[in-house]
Structure formats: structure tokens, C-alpha cells
Amino acid sequence: MTVRDIQSEAIDALLVLLAPVGQVEEGDVRAIFDSEDDSLPDEFIVLQPGTTEEVLNGKPRMQNSVPETTVINIVLVSKLRQYSRGLRAKRLAVKVATRGHKCGLESIGGIASAGFLQETPTRPGDGRRWAAHVMPLQVTYTQPLQ
Questions:
Q1: Structural contact between residues 90 and 102, judged by C-beta atoms closer than 8 angstroms
Q2: Tens digits of residue pLDDT in 53-74
Q3: What is the C-alpha separation between 89 and 109, in angstroms, rounded?
Q4: ∠ Cα 105 106 109 (to 5°)
Q5: Residue 101 half-sphere exposure, CB side, CA atoms within 13 Å?
Q6: What is the count of structural domains for the chain?
Q7: Which CATH number do you get for residue 80?
Q8: In sequence order, what are the residues at sequence separation of 6 or more whose Cβ sits closer than 8 angstroms to the Cβ of residue 2?
Q9: Does a structural domain hold residue 1?
Q10: How many Cα atoms are found within 13 Å in the side-chain-facing hemisphere of 11?
Q11: For residue 76, what are the domain limits?
């Protein structure tokens, strides 16, 4: 029995939606920051899955589905010395690419809402070369269980 994975469908859709903005990959930003991979471009986007929780609102859990909210962190990264302007431009490009009531995820059945939470810019730490701008996208959906 195959069960639809709404979270994976959302990430797959974001990979496509954000491709015109720049190179996009799913992964863990910390692993990328710790790697010495010289093949990485100066600027790119990482989709990093965040927290997921059931949203029952005092109602009993259903047999066939469960309402969930997940956060997908859209992390804009740059190793350029003058990173601020480029990250701001990418931030705006992400907002344009994800426009709409459900942040561009309207085609995925089961998604009830989507929207951005508070964003966090991060300067490169001492001895580090990567700056980042984290754009947490919160997606609420009904996850089928069968």
C-alpha cells in the first residue's frame, strides 16, 4: 500500500518553483557549511525540513488522515564577501516564485494553507565563509494515512 506523502510533494514542488531563482537542493545546511566542497556555487538555496506537528485542536485523531503543520526552511546561502545585496535579491525572488494563497503549492491536494514565518539573517561566523538568510515556510495540510 502506497500512501501519499504530502510533505515530500511540497518539497518536490518547491524544488521546481525555486529553480529559476538559483541552484536548489534538499539537505542539511550545517553539513554544507562544514564541507569544503569547492564545486558549490557562490550562492544557492537549500530546502531543509524543519518541525512537523499534528494539529488536532482538541479533536480526536481520525482513522484515515491527520492534520499536520510542517516547516520547510528555505535557506538562502552565500559565500560572497558582499553577501547582503545578493541575499536580499534572492529573498525577493523567492517571494515572487512562491506568490499566491498557498505559496505556489496550490496544485497539491490536501494543502490547506502556507505562509512564511519570521525570517532570520545570519552573518558568517568567525572562521566561516557562508552567510545565510532563513525563510521558514509553514505548510498546513491533511496527511492521508491510507
A1: no
A2: 999 888 888 899 999 999 999 9
A3: 31
A4: 100
A5: 6
A6: 1
A7: 3.30.2000.30
A8: none
A9: no
A10: 17
A11: 6-144
